[in-house]
Amino acid sequence: SITMLNDYKPIQRSRISSILNTILTSKRITRTNLAERLHLSQSSIVKYIKILMEMSFVREHGMDMPTGGRRSIFLEFNPGVGVNISVIFNISFLHGALVNLAGEVVFESKETVYNGIPERELLDKLIILIDRLQKHADDMSKRIFGIGIGIGGYLNMDTGISHSYFFSKNWNEIELKTKIEDRYKLPFFLINDIDAGALGDRYYGKGIGVDNFLCLWVSESVGMGIVLNGDIYFGKNGYVGEIGHTRVMPDGPLCSCGNTGCLETVTSENYILKRCIEGVAGGAMSEILKLCNGNINQLKIEHVIEASNNGDKLSRNIFEEAGNYIGLKLADTANILNPELIILRGSVLNGNTYLFETIERVMRKQVLRPIANSIKITYSHSQRSDTDIRLLGVSSYILMKYFNA
Q1: Among the listed residues 108, 341, 335, 322, the one whose alpha carbon sits nearest the alpha carbon of residue 222
Q2: Dist CA 5 CA 51 (whole Å)
Q3: Contact 242, 226 (CB under 8 A)
Q4: CB-CB contact of 195 with 240 (8 Å)
Q5: How many CA atoms within 13 Å lie on the side-chain side of 256?
Q6: For every residue of 371-397, which 3-state class applies, written as one string?
Q7: Is this model's pTM higher than 0.85 or not?
Q8: Residues facing residue 49 across a β-bridge
Q9: In order along the chain (405 residues), what is the average pLDDT of each group of 10 residues?
Q10: What pLDDT shows up at residue 405?
Q11: 75, 89, 277, 327, 331 from 344: Cα distances, Å
């Protein structure tokens, strides 16, 4: 197991850790490239790779040269050696998955929750979900390396304590690390859910090969993950990128954080749906009524996005306003951090062509010209995005912590 690294001397552990992290970043790499990247001799690389292959963490994968030249042997993680349990806290559901070392989801499951759910009930739902994931791993004869949770709010990554979580009643100083490790006898890791998204993009998504990027999430809540110089930026204790709690309206709506007029209050999924329902109730003609089969109480964000993409005036007016708020905030952030890429994700942004175009137009107009000329902005094109990339980010965080132990 990876914990066997403790059997090696510090310098050996350090080199093995560097090799594992490089493979995590590269996905597939030759021994020669590894030696060059890490400034190690070929003989050292051969020795350490032999150790990792005996531990079954790394495997060889042959690649024939298209010109018929010499066959290159690549090294990659062995997807069959085991899995991590990854869980993301959303306001309306807990989302869990078994993720292998190659960043592939082998099983997913969800538990329905709700805004304001009592702490005890939420913890019970979490245990039900992890139990189910553990049983599935056992049924597949998959070894579990660790359990990771991505959650919003104020947390301490080192102690594994969730100090506060806005969307649960009486959630205070929850010692998740102690609770999970005592029950499952597996290593536990805690990370902010949006930081997990940035890690997922860094290793498996749109941020592969990009050293400086921002990942903005707009869904039931709003947050930002930050990657600087190739590393995720956690700040002092993981409480970073809270762009959703920066103010855009001095006398705006009350936010879950206790302040008023935060970006989250005028751009989140629930706010968009509320504005649409009020518009239809006020007599506005809109395609969204047809898309939800005439039952406005069954309206989903996907309906609003589809209507907007089809040119619906009500939904576009609402997204125009949200896009202005988001674009201005992104311009401020880009002027401060000078990223090369901004990735837009989340239920409000997935597949939302009109909102994306509005955000990009506003941001490029406001940001300093040298930054505007060098920055790329992209979004998830599918309304119903595939597996939440934050789950992959949680898994990669577990691996990072293991490798650097």
Answers
A1: 322
A2: 10
A3: no
A4: yes
A5: 24
A6: HHHHCEEEECCCCCCCCCHHHHHHHHH
A7: yes
A8: none
A9: 62 83 85 90 90 85 62 85 94 94 94 96 98 96 94 91 93 97 95 93 91 94 93 82 91 88 94 94 90 89 95 96 97 96 95 96 96 94 74 93 73
A10: 57
A11: 32, 19, 25, 11, 14
Side chain identity at residue 32, one-letter code: T
Q: Token pair of 41, please?
A: 């001799």
**Rounded distance, CA 75 to CA 62, Å?**
9
Question: What's the order of all strands across the beta sheet hosting 29-30?
Answer: 29-30, 72-77, 58-63
Q: DSSP letter at 174?
A: E
| CA–CA distance, 92 with 114 (Å, rounded to integer) | 5
| Phi, psi angle pair for 331, to nearest 5° | -65, -45
Q: What kind and span of H or E run contains 115?
A: none
| Sign of the four-CA dihedral 62, 63, 68, 70 | negative
Q: Which residue is associated with the tokens 């921002």?
A: 214
Pairwise CA distance, residues 169 & 122, whole Å: 9
> Long-range pairs for 335-338 at CB < 8 Å and ≥24 separation?
335/367, 335/368, 335/371, 337/212, 337/214, 337/226, 337/228, 338/212, 338/371, 338/374
pLDDT at res. 383: 64
Structure tokens at 196: 């997990």
Give the pLDDT score at 297: 85
**Alpha carbons 183 and 186: distance in angstroms, whole number:** 8
Rounded Cα distance between 249 and 219, Å, is 19
Q: Which tokens belong to 272?
A: 């968009």
C-alpha to C-alpha distance for 384 and 386, rounded to whole angstroms = 6
At residue 179, what are phi and psi to the nearest 5 degrees? -60, -45
Amino acid letter, 267: T
374/341 Cα distance (integer angstroms): 9
| SS (HEC) of 118-170 | EHHHHHHHHHHHHHHHHHHHHHCCCCEEEEEEEECCEEECCCCEEEECCCEEC
- Whether 113 and 92 have beta carbons less than 8 Å apart is answered as yes
The residue written with tokens 């003989």 in the block is 43
